[in-house]
Design a protein that fits this description.
The complex is a heterodimer of chains A (about 350) and B (about 250). By secondary structure, chain A is mainly α. Helix content of chain A is about 70%, strand content about 0%. Chain A has 16 helices and four strands. In chain B, the strands form two sheets. Chain B has a six-stranded mixed β-sheet, with helices on both faces. In chain B, helix 3 packs parallel to helix 6 (about 155-165) and helix 5 crosses helix 6. Classes of the chains: A mainly alpha (about 350), B alpha/beta (about 250). The structure holds adenosine-5'-triphosphate (ATP) and magnesium ion.
């Protein structure tokens, strides 16, 4: 069992709480930076996809995992990021400007919908977010001069200061660095007043208010940050898929993002990353499964959403703390063996509190 | 001008007059207690002070200013903190995080600086941490500092909720049944802390409580409420012996 002796309050502010963390995360960093050396192009691409999902999931985590506002419309922020970025590129705006403008555009849209949405709670907010996503999808279909409508839109390859990027490994590094920066910024928020206010609102709006936390402001800021991050992921995704069409960013993607953070573990940064890897694996398995199943079932259009929905429900019922939560339990069990109390984590079920009585 | 007062406060839920033309005023440095049977309207008065409910009639005044129309999130800034009858802690956070949230009103930094977490930001965080540690020492919570609330027993949670309200550094502290659910020893400790809060920290206390031993021990003044009306006021003894109060507790009409 590890006992931490605290000598300095800084210890609680640091990202890495003790030497073990430093070692394992350094190892992980080395591994992700060396991955393209060891893997072939196919796997580098797959890994890039997972990192983009992780970034989008991180964005959703801010609003849903930390602030407790369940959004079923986050694919729309990816769409706004992707289309804005792709459009700006066709207008000759360089990649290094276009990508942040796209992320910020998504953020501003997030801000605008958050202002009315911050008055809603629980299910109403979720339905509103769904409606928002449908409106955005419609807009993309009908705004043909910018988005190409149903015909879709090709995305120019990224170029950094005149140097065009074609190789998978080069793009992988761009995505990786942006993901790491985003994680660091989110972790900073979490150790600051805003992050604590978000967690407070998630658990008890009334006591948060009685302590002086401004509910609407906190929710709006959470939406803003969330939409920026998810919009950034959308911009990166645009290059990854190289061709944008409205159905790419439909309700299925929103469900997938939600599934990711629930399966990974709500309320933690780890959860978003874990979830992205698991969803990546799941997608790969489903495509293998499809070949293997009799065609009558395998080619059903509802197969993927059905499976995603089922897994989401099972996790909410049986493992509300997600895979990361399961891992924390396992680690606690190993560290405290043989003194583990069966009910150490007992009262922590029911995470997704969407409706609350005063 | 009194330190804190409510004047002719009324509020109905549907047909039920939860609070009916209630008035009282308390002085700075007092422990002022509201007693009364279940459903008398005590918590409803607190919820109006917190601006969770708007009274249909009457006014709430703090240090001469009318705060009846203040927003719920302004009350802490005005100098009033509270605890809840059914503990309202942030269940999935640690004790330390809960107490740090109590520093919210003193810790307002531009979001951009929070994102970057510059050295000045770190210094501010450390300063607030020291304030929180003072409260941890005061209530002897050091042992639980890094525990998640969900893992803690009821009595400890009550203490943490009190601690969180103290982190606000209020001038007036509202305690809604601080001793409910506590065993006799814990109740006795609560009495000592309330005394210390008044005498050492100089915070005035407005308390709702059913436990008469605690009421007798700490209260400077007591009022009794029944059916939303103030039916008696005075010392703890006077109120307890008042015939209307006895009748109210026995279930008769007051
Ligand atoms: N939100 C609400 N909606 C409807 N009725 C309410 C609400 N809050 C309180 N009431 C009613 O108002 C009356 C007073 O309730 P209140 O909670 O203030 O009582 P109390 O004096 O705090 O009682 P207790 O000692 O049981 O806590 C009760 O009849 C209660 O049912
Ligand atoms: Mg009550």
């Amino acid at each position: 069992m590890r006992v931490l002796f605290k000598t300095d309050y800084n210890q609680d502010i640091k990202f890495a709480k003790h030497g073990g963390y430093v070692f394992w995360y350094a190892l992980l960093l080395v591994a992700v930076f060396l991955a393209p050396v060891a893997l072939d192009t196919y796997w580098v691409n797959e890994l890039t996809r997972v990192l983009i999902y992780a970034l989008a999931g991180l964005g959703l985590m801010v609003v849903t995992g930390f602030t407790g506002q369940v959004s079923l419309g986050h694919a729309a922020f990816m769409a706004i990021g992707a289309y804005t970025h792709a459009f700006l590129l066709t207008q000759g705006v360089p990649f290094v400007f276009s990508l942040p403008i796209a992320a910020l555009t998504s953020g501003i849209v997030g801000l605008m919908i958050a202002i009315p949405a911050s008055r809603m709670t629980g299910l109403y907010l979720t339905i509103a977010s769904l409606a928002f996503a449908i409106v955005v999808e419609d807009l993309i279909i009908h705004w043909e001069s910018v988005t190409g409508g149903n015909r879709g839109m090709a995305v120019d390859p990224p170029a950094l200061f005149g140097y065009e990027i074609y190789a998978a490994w080069e793009y992988y590094y761009i995505v990786l660095v942006l993901l790491i920066i985003s994680i660091a910024l989110v972790l900073n928020i979490l150790r600051s007043p805003l992050g604590r206010a978000m967690l407070a609102i998630r658990d008890s709006e009334i006591s948060a208010q009685s302590l002086g936390i401004r509910l609407a402001r906190t929710k709006v800021l959470a939406f803003f940050l969330s939409a920026i991050i998810t919009g950034l992921a959308g911009g990166l995704f645009a290059h990854f898929i190289q061709f944008l069409s409205p159905e790419t960013f439909g309700i299925l993607l929103s469900i997938q993002l939600l599934l990711m953070i629930v399966v990974g573990g709500l309320g933690t940064v780890h959860g978003a990353i874990f979830g992205a890897f698991l969803i990546g694996l799941l997608e790969a398995s489903i495509s293998i499964l499809k070949d293997w199943l009799p065609p009558a079932i395998g080619t059903q259009p509802g197969l993927e959403p059905g499976l995603f929905g089922l897994i989401l429900v099972l996790f909410i019922i049986f493992e509300p703390e997600g895979v990361y939560g399961r891992w924390v339990k396992l680690r606690t069990f190993l560290e405290s063996f043989p003194f583990y109390r069966r009910n150490t984590f007992k009262r922590q079920r029911s995470y997704l509190k969407t409706e609350r009585m005063r | 001008m009194s330190f804190f007062e409510i004047e002719n406060l009324s509020l109905s839920f549907g047909g039920v007059k939860a609070v009916d033309d209630a008035s009282f005023s308390m002085d700075e440095g007092e422990v002022f207690t509201i007693v009364g049977p279940n459903g008398a309207g005590k918590s409803t008065i607190f919820n109006m002070i917190s601006s969770f409910y708007a009274p249909s009639h009457g006014a709430i005044r703090f240090k001469g200013a009318d705060i009846t129309a203040a927003r719920a999130d302004e009350i802490a800034r005005i100098g009033i903190a509270r605890t809840f009858q059914n503990i309202e802690l942030f269940e999935h956070s640690t004790v330390l995080q809960n107490l740090l949230i109590g520093r919210e009103i003193h810790n307002r930094v531009p979001v951009l600086r929070q994102l970057i977490f510059d050295p000045g930001m770190r210094r501010a965080e450390l300063a607030h941490r020291r304030k929180v540690e003072d409260v941890i020492d005061f209530l002897e919570l050091a042992h639980y500092r890094d525990e998640r609330i969900a893992n803690l027993p009821y009595g400890v949670r009550k203490k943490i909720e009190l601690g969180r309200a103290l982190c606000v550094e209020p001038e007036l502290l509202l305690l809604d049944e601080p001793a409910s659910g506590l065993n006799p020893e814990e109740t006795e400790d609560m009495g000592f802390w309330i005394d210390d809060i008044k005498n050492d920290l100089g915070i005035s206390v407005l308390m709702i409580e059913h436990d008469m031993s605690l009421v007798n021990e700490v209260s400077d003044r007591v009022i009794a409420l029944n059916n939303g009306r103030v039916i008696a006021s005075g010392s703890a003894q006077e109120v307890q012996n008042h015939p209307d109060v006895v009748a109210a507790y026995l279930g008769g009409a007051a």
